[in-house]
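> tool_call: predict_assembly(chains=three)
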Amino acid sequence: MGRAPCCEKVGLKKGRWTTEEDETLSKYIEANGEGSWRSLPKNAGLKRCGKSCRLRWINYLRADVKRGNITTEEEDTIIKMHNSLGNRWSLIAGHLQGRTDNEIKNYWNSHLSRRLHTIRRPSGEDPPTIVMDLAKIGGGCKRKGRTSRAAMKKNNRNNNDSNSNNNNKTLSSKEVLTEKSEGESCESGLIDPMPLQEESMRNDVELLEGLERKGMILDTDMWVEKRHVPAQGLILDGGSRSLLSEEIESSERTCLNGDSEKGILGPCDGLETSMLFCDDIMGDGVLMIPSGNSVVSEEKENGASSFSEGEMGLVMSSTKGTSSEERGSGGMSSNGESGEWYSSGSISSCFQDSDWVNWNWDGVVEGPNLSHEGEELLSWLWDSDNGEVGKMVEFEQEKALSAWLLS
DNA sequence: AAGCATTGCAACCGCGATCCA
DNA sequence: TTGGATCGCGGTTGCAATGCT
């Protein structure tokens, strides 16, 4: 038996709320207060589900709901907090005055998630093959269809203030990101590096080379040509995934196992490689793990929900693949294997030695150690970003830490 | 001008958490 | 302690709005 419905659905109205319904709901709640959502529609004379009434009130009718566009400050806060907290929209919304979880969630899904990461592949012949830069996101190639409202507003703003962006102003990476993201054309995913990003790219190169020295796989060619999987795996972002997907799918030696809809690729007969794609915080992720282990099959059964918490840049060093269970929410593997993990909003710092943290699944679950989520939050706090964003969210960081501790 | 493609947002849905008798 | 009722959250869907061809 399933649970009882929250309300009698027969005869209830669905879809958009009319102004009359809004007025009715508002007047009733103003007179009687919030709560008792189940009985509210009947008492108020609304042919709506109680849940629908609650949602309408919380997301739209409440007096303290903030209208208008998400500001850049709010956007930065969202990004930072999402990096640490994952899809905990209500928690994030709690740090943004007047914003609802639904609004934050929608904004994330429609604006932020697809432009936070991308992959670059220099045309040069030398490795490293993969270069990632936070600011290289882009909405991809020129698209058809409606320009985003944000872009329209931006265009309007730019038209009104045509000189504002032509004065060699140094853009923050996010600004660059935003500028690049809206409907600009690109070629094969390659974008000329912005001056501001060159150092970051160098860091990426150095760090990725460092990881390669650690024996981790860094080179897509290695994957495509050698199909050799070292003892480690690497989660990449959506851009990496796309690139790898293209290359691997174009390879004769590769086959999809039919679970591609779930995001699982491989294992393939005769190959040593398995890949697990997972939706990640910033869109997509790729987890590369050795085939023949239990992780792949487990993930198939469980719908590849691992790593959906949204952490970015997880690096595995376990040879047996320990990460089959959900991370971040207590559902850790209990097989007691240990490894290393890292989380960051940028893969650049992902491979810095100092950022490597030894973890132990058992410890995460039951020991006094910080949970994964906590580690992430702390890593964010430790990662003293002296930039504007970092300053701006200091207070939010404190609140986030408090919220996390309380939770 | 019409149809198509795409976006963004409001709303719905299912489920876990919490409350309470 | 138990189980039903309710709340709250996050994922997903539907559709109006809008730009492009």
